[in-house]
Structure formats: C-alpha cells, structure tokens
C-alpha cells in the first residue's frame, strides 16, 4: 500500500535525524481517505476538526494563537525534539468552501502528525494551520512577529504547503542555498518518485505587454513569505497552476497526461 505524503514526510525527517537514520511511521490510504472525506465547509469547522485530528494523531501540545482582526486563531501542534531547533510546517485554514485542494492541503497537517508523533526527532516540529491567508498573510505574519529572538533564531527551516493534490508537487523558495531542495531530491530518489521541479516567474506562460511576467517570486511563497523576510530558510510545495503547467510539461518535469483540473487522491498521497 502506498504511504501518506511520502515525499514530504521523508524530506522533513531526513533533515531532523542523523544522516543514516530516517524514521517515520506509515499512514495507510484508508486514513487518508477518511481525513479527505471530512472536508468541513467553514473555517470554524476546519479549525475544530484539525484540532480533533491533532489530538487523535497523538499531538502532545496543541495551542491556539489569537490573531487580531481575524475571527479564527492560528492552530499549532508542537512535537518536541531532542535538541534545540525547530522546523515549522504550515498550511492555510482559510479558503473557499468548494476548494478541494484547500482542505486536502490543510488536512495534510494532522496526517503528518500521525506520521511524526510516534517517532523521535532531533528538532521540534511545529505544525501550524495559519489563518488570514486571504488578508495579507495575517496569521503567518503574526506568528513570526510574536516569536522571541531565541525562538526565531531556533527555526532551522519553514515548509509551507499550498494547493496540493491537482498535479505532482512543484516547489518555490527564496534563498539561493539549495539545502532544502537537495533534501527534496534525496527524498524523491529514495522513494523512486520524480524530483519536484522548481518554479519561478519564468515558468508561467502569461506575460505583460513589456514582456515581463505578472507573477513575482514572492507570489509563490504563500505563508512562507514572513519567514523568508526574517531570513529563515523556506520552501513552498504546491500544485502547478494552469499558467505554469504547459511550461513544465514541455520540459518533461510533469507528465503530459496531467491536467491539473481536478483533485487526484493518488497524486495527493504521493506528495
């Protein structure tokens, strides 16, 4: 049976464990399907459901962080590590009620908790459902702004999840250092999956009259943007949108038969 979010799970844990010791727990398809089938329509119900799934997944510490001018909080699961240092994994809790990829991306957080909670890890993993994505990243910005200096310095990396499940994942990142993308390639190779391609404004087929892309690098970072502004290494995993898919398919980075129109549970599971 396939493994839940195999690529992301092994990528995160390969960075938290010693170089020759990668450990995580298999999460089987029936549990993935059960999470996907919940699909709460309102943000209030999503926060309540994700909290319940965090608890069922074995999260030892769940926090709610109130965010000004937002009706709902950031929801945080902390999985303590054995050493100083933190990895942040985030997704948005506010999205349109008919957005299947929105719920699929958000519910990946408690599925990852299922995978991580039962095994030791070197660094603390903070799994965060961010509110306020549609209001200038208010939840992620508030989270970063209210870290102490020590907490901010302790963050080794931030992984943001966005719009997953329509195509095999692609990634975007701000920093020139390729450590995070290198681990992504290691994970893909280990699991016999294609390495996710990197996207940037040049990937998109839409251009302005001056020949420039209307897409900016920062547009691709989602909730990782406030972390990048604090010089935290970040990487955002997402599905390729319709404006980027043709370029990626011409480069054979994504299979030609992938349309990206509908949520695909098999693609989601491999992600």
Query: Which consecutive residue ranges, at least 5 long each, have pLDDT under 50?
Result: 17-21
| CATH architectural designation | 3-Layer(aba) Sandwich
- CA-based gyration radius: 17 Å
**What's the mean pLDDT score?**
89
Q: Which structural class best describes the helix and strand composition? A: alpha/beta
At the fourth CATH level, what is the homologous superfamily? Zn peptidases
The end-to-end span amounts to 15 Å
SS element count, helices:
10
* Percent in strands: 15-25%
**Principal-axes shape call:** globular
Residues in helices, as a percent range: 25-40%
CATH class: Alpha Beta
| Structural domain tally | 1
Instruction: Let me know the largest β-sheet.
Output: 7 strands, mixed
CATH topology: Aminopeptidase
Element string (H = helix, E = strand):
HHHEEEHEHHEEHHEHH
The neighbouring-strand order within the major sheet is 1-2-4-3-5-7-6
The total strand number stands at 7
Q: Can you put this structure into words, describing what you see?
A:
The chain is of the alpha/beta class. It has a single domain, classed as Zn peptidases (Aminopeptidase, 3-Layer(aba) Sandwich), CATH 3.40.630.10. Helix content is 35%, strand content 15%. The chain is built from ten helices and seven strands. Strands 1-2-4-3-5-7-6 form a seven-stranded mixed β-sheet, sandwiched between helices. Strand 1 and strand 2 form a beta hairpin. The longest helix is centred in the middle third of the chain and has 17 residues. It is globular, with a radius of gyration of 17 Å. About 2% of the residues have low confidence.
């Amino acid at each position: 049976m396939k493994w839940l979010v195999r690529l992301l799970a092994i990528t995160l844990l390969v960075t938290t464990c010693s170089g020759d010791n990668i450990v995580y727990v298999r999460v089987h398809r029936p549990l993935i399907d059960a999470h996907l089938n919940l699909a709460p329509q309102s943000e209030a119900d999503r926060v309540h459901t994700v909290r319940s799934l965090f608890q069922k997944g074995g999260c030892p510490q769940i926090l709610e962080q109130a965010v000004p001018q937002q009706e709902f909080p950031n929801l945080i699961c902390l999985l303590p590590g054995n050493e100083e240092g933190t990895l942040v994994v985030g997704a948005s809790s506010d999205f349109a009620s008919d957005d299947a990829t929105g719920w699929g991306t958000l519910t990946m957080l408690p599925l990852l908790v299922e995978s991580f909670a039962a095994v030791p890890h070197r660094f603390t993993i903070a799994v965060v459902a961010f509110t306020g994505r549609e209001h200038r990243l208010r939840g992620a910005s508030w989270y970063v702004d209210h870290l102490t200096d020590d907490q901010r310095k302790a963050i080794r990396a931030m992984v943001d999840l966005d719009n997953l499940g329509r195509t095999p994942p692609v990634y975007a990142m701000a920093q020139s250092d390729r450590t995070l993308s290198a681990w992504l390639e290691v994970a893909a190779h280990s699991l016999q999956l294609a390495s996710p391609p990197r996207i940037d404004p040049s990937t998109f087929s839409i251009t302005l009259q001056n020949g420039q892309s209307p897409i900016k690098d920062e547009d691709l970072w989602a909730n990782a943007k406030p972390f990048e502004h604090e010089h935290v290494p970040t990487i955002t995993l997402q599905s390729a949108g319709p404006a980027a898919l043709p370029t990626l398919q011409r480069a054979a980075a994504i299979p030609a038969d992938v349309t990206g129109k509908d949520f695909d549970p098999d693609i989601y599971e491999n992600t």
